[in-house]
Specification:
Length: 88
Amino acid sequence: MMPTYIVIYDLSSDGDYDELYKKLKSFNGWAKITESAWAIGSSKKASEIRDELIPFAGVNGKLFVIKSGKAAAWKNVIASNEWLKKFL
């Protein structure tokens, strides 16, 4: 199974949400977890994913990419429980 990464972001005013969403949806499987957190499937390194997302964050935008671990818990997320259980 391909690794899953959690991407958390806070774009600055010059960031581009539409392009960021397009890029996130281009990965091998994705789910929007909350308004500013997604899970994506990728065989790339976290730093490579970060570098691909940087152009959309804006000058002072914040990005956090972490490889998913073995345990997770959630409540009232946007993504389906089934997707999260399968890929996280």
